[in-house]
Amino acid sequence: MSALYGTYARSELAFERGEGMRLYDQHGRSYLDFHSGVAVNALGHGDAHLVTALKAAAEKVWHTANTFTIPEQERLGQRLVEASFADSVFFTNSGAEAIECAIKTARHYFWAKGQPDRYEIIAFTGSFHGRTLGTIAAGGNPDYLEGFGPAAPGFKHARPGDLDSVKALISPQSCAILIEPVQGEGGVTAMTSEFMQGLRKLCDENDMLLVLDEVQCGYGRTGRFFAYEWSGITPDIVAVAKAIGGGFPLGACLAKGDVASSMVPGTHGSTYGGNPLASAMGNAVLDRILAPGFIDHVNQMGQKLAWHLQQLAQRYPDYVLELRGKGLLAGIKITPPVRDFVSRLRDDHQMLVIGAGDNVLRLLPPLIVTEADIIEAVEKIAAAFDAIEAETASVPAVG
User: Fold this and answer.
1) Residues 351-384: pLDDT tens digits?
2) In CATH, what is the architecture of 49-289?
3) Average pLDDT score over residue span 1-17
4) Location of each CATH 3.40.640.10 domain in the chain
5) pTM, two decimal places
6) What is the pLDDT of residues 215-225, one digit of tens each?
7) Would residue 242 show up in a list of annotated catalytic residues for this protein?
8) Which of 213, 236, 248, 373 is catalytic?
9) Is 326 noted as a catalytic residue in this protein?
10) Active site residue: 242, 256, 326, 333, which one?
11) Catalytic-role residue among 110, 124, 128, 248
């Protein structure tokens, strides 16, 4: 009997070590990782630069409170500002905390302008923003809200891709629009550039803020450093996490200077957020991701993955209904139950993937993936489809 909360449907599989695209279990078996710890292990496993940085940081100062200056944090914040739209950064421990900071920043911005009634945020069905009380209210998924009392007020939900549904929700109380440029958990739905540009225009016309959740789709995963770059827009606030620490718990809320200016001492805080150890890892990850050619490689591999998945879809029209996503955040809407298919790939084909809403198989390889890895992954998925087909053919017809 485990001493842990029963909040996860855990496999008994446990891993002892990792190398590049591979994880190795307690019996030495190798698994192709297209899961990446839910998009966290952007540099794969055992990256030499990250290991060296972690060892060096561990020999210095692990933690000081944010009541002191943290040089590594200052450096990481400046680098993120230089690589993005932002002027200010707040560091957190997770994506949910980054979203909480984004929500508070947006609402406090209008409070400081003398408009305290402007606190409503328009979010979207199919979204996922975290597991805190605030972020499950923002996501609006009834399954995640059930059992936790009344949902936190101040959130309305429009349909992704439908500007008219957004317009219908705008009121004098509206302060912001919150959206994932590519929905992950909800079904790997990528927003079009036209839709993102339309949201920016609506925000400009109604004096609202555009808040992006790039916790999963940011940090190079779509083939740009941030997914918003594809649509040519400038957001007001962006939340990031997952890949930012390469496996070390870290998140961040990035904002324009005027938007963040009201967040003065006492308005927000985090004991661990951006501590010396976390910031050192954040800088080490940036060393690799912002290195010349790295994101170009991700973009190329995203195109390769899309091509090979198209071939897979043509080969298995009875099993592949739709291809979704952007770059190395790819989704395959399949006919077999996705939870069972994830288990089949893991147990029978030694490949790690993750499910998503709408019966979508989600592929999240480390950003160091090669075309050879992609071909191997697609072959494993094909083998799983073949196995299902053989099992179905062997079942005697009824009547």
Assistant:
1) 999 999 999 999 999 999 999 999 999 999 999 9
2) 3-Layer(aba) Sandwich (3.40)
3) 93
4) 49-289
5) 0.95
6) 999 999 999 99
7) yes
8) 213
9) no
10) 242
11) 128
